[in-house]
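Category: protein sequence paired with discrete backbone structure
Discipline: computational structural biology
Format: plain text, a pair of labelled lines
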Amino acid sequence: MRLFTAIDIPFEQKKMICDVSGAIHNTLSQGRMVSSENYHITLEFLGDVTAESIKMIEKILSDTAGKLSRFDLSLDGSGKFRSANGDIVYLKVVDREDKLAPIVYEQRKILLQNGFKTDNRKYVPHVTLYRDAAGFVPETFSFGRIDFSVCGLSLFESCFTGNGGIYRELYKASLT
């Protein structure tokens, strides 16, 4: 099972992101659009994990979430990661309370202590809109900020289908 931990985005904000994605689409010459159901903020990509390990990951998420209160995030501006097959176009996450990086680095530490592989790159919180993209991506749009509250940490499975990937939430640990 290909798993990752993430923050799910509320439905109303996913609709707003869809509007922004449509505006960005007009600036691209190519790219595969991410389905709105798949919008999320990745915390840690775990890769292929055995089903037996899921309970341990759920406990790690639950323990982490139990130490946290709800907090607010915003999406504001766009960017892209360079890739040989085409760029990844994303919306930037604004974390005014500086909550995300400590969550990610603490989660990485605990996952490593329990034998999981983690990503050692600098954490860049974002919401992916397009993969394999080419074309102009403006830094900002007139869409304004998209604000939402984080109320949980989730474990997702990435499932491949003939029409691309879908992400299925396996577990959610609520914040206090």
Summary: Strands lie at 2-8, 28-33, 40-48, 71-81, 87-94, 126-135, 146-150, 152-161, 164-174. The longest helix spans residues 11-25. The longest strand covers residues 71-81.
